[in-house]
DNA sequence: AGCACACCGGAATGCCTGTTCCACTTACGC
DNA sequence: GCGTAAGTGGAACAGGCATTCCGGTGTGCT
């Protein structure tokens, strides 16, 4: 689960050994830099961290958005994997639901770029590449909800679409120590929100 | 309530008539442009909309952040005025609390720049100018909470700081039709969150 | 009316960042 | 070993945008 890329070039041939190595380095560096700096990480920094020239970076990914798109799809795979794990392992429907949201929130708290993307003040180009992966995540989420509702622990009117919405909200409070006075505690925020999804 | 500016120049003298007129135009234009474009509105557009040269704009406000800071303080006055109104007019503690949040959310939904500021991925320079106004808002909010808790309609552990946090979350879903697939409905989000603040 | 000085406009400046270009290396099949 | 297509680095380019500069303009006061 959760691999990364078809290692072929457009002519069908497999990537040359050094090219493949560089590609991996770039993806790794991008993951790190995007995670800490968010969507406005700089291409040059990514290149530097990958110990590669910018030119090389652009040989592998046509634009910044394409690069981010790749990572985004991967992140969504992570999230839906985690959801499906809860679905399989956890027998208590409430814990399965709440636990998934908690775990996924934890994941997003470590990646500023996904947060930025989810809160989406940016171009659609980033999203395009990952429709499928996102759909998978929604599917898993839907199952969690149905199960919770069947057990009578989740409000009847809770929708799949509500979850990304709430997560978007929680992500907004994760901005690493922004200038907003008074500490924001996203874990608490999440608990508050979760309580709002409980069957009264 | 809710005025705007000391109309004096640094030498103490009152502003020249035309200067005062321009200043007003600038503030008006800035309010509009910031409201619709958010924090990354462009100075040139503000100047254009105010029918004024950029130079003039900079004569009145040293930087973009200073200008935004001014508007921000004003917005906070709006919000706390609304809170105090509820406090005075509404006798039902729950409605006073929930109504204020609803009204204030409605206000913020009309102003992209405050939203951006609250979600704060930006410089502290903007905030500085409005500490006082923000403190006022928190004070009013605190009263709403205390009253609600006394009446037993709000969870006992709800804090003043929780409110900006939740509002921050709701604001995140207001991004005017961002690229995120599936419509986000901030009003629903707010209701969900409000339910989370209710006494069980 | 006439003079100073406050004000104005907007072209020009400077910086930041994504993207392109191309002379130079290097992997790999023969 | 050699030739060549694939791959590389990083200087240079381009567009966007806040901010500055300064020659010109109009207000307010006497």
How does this structure look, described?
- The structure is a homodimer of 200-residue chains.
- Chain A is mainly alpha-helical.
- Chain A contains 10 helices and no strands.
- Chain A has helices at residues 17-37, 43-49, 54-60, 64-89, 93-109, 112-119, 125-128, 131-150, 162-172, 186-197.
- The first copy, chain A, is globular, with a radius of gyration of 19 Å.
- Chain A binds a DNA duplex (30 and 30 nucleotides) through residues 9, 13, 15-19, 22, 40, 42-44, 47, 52-56, 58-59, 62-64.
- Tell me about the largest β-sheet of chain A: none
Poorly predicted runs of chain A are: none
What is the molecular shape of chain A? globular
Average per-residue pLDDT of chain A, rounded, comes to: 92
Q: Give the beta-strand count of chain A.
A: 0
Q: What level of helicity do the residues of chain A show?
A: 55-70%
Radius of gyration of chain A: 19 Å
Most extensive interface, chain pair and sizes? A-B, 42 and 42 residues
Q: What percentage of amino acids of chain A are in beta strands?
A: under 5%
- Derived structural class of chain A: mainly alpha
N-C termini distance of chain A: 38 Å
N-to-C SSE series of chain A? Answer: HHHHHHHHHH
Oligomer: homodimer
Task: Note the total helix count of chain A.
Answer: 10
């Amino acid at each position: 689960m959760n691999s990364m890329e078809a290692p072929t070039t457009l002519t069908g041939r497999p990537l040359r050994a050094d090219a493949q190595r560089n590609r991996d380095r770039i993806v790794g560096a991008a993951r790190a830099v995007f995670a800490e700096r968010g969507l406005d990480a700089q291409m040059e920094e990514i290149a530097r961290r990958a110990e590669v020239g910018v030119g090389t970076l652009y040989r592998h990914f046509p634009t910044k958005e394409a690069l981010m798109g790749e990572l985004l799809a991967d992140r969504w795979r992570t999230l839906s994997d985690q959801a499906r794990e809860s679905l399989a392992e956890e027998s208590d429907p409430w814990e399965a639901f709440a636990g998934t949201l908690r775990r996924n929130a934890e994941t997003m708290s470590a990646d500023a770029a996904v947060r930025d993307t989810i809160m989406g003040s940016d171009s659609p180009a980033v999203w395009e590449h990952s429709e499928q992966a996102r759909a998978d995540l929604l599917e898993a989420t839907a199952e969690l909800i149905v199960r919770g509702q069947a057990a009578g622990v989740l409000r009847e009117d809770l929708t799949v679409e509500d979850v990304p919405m709430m997560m978007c909200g929680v992500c907004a409070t994760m901005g690493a120590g922004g200038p907003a006075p008074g500490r924001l505690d996203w874990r608490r925020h999440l608990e508050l929100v979760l309580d709002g999804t409980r069957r009264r």
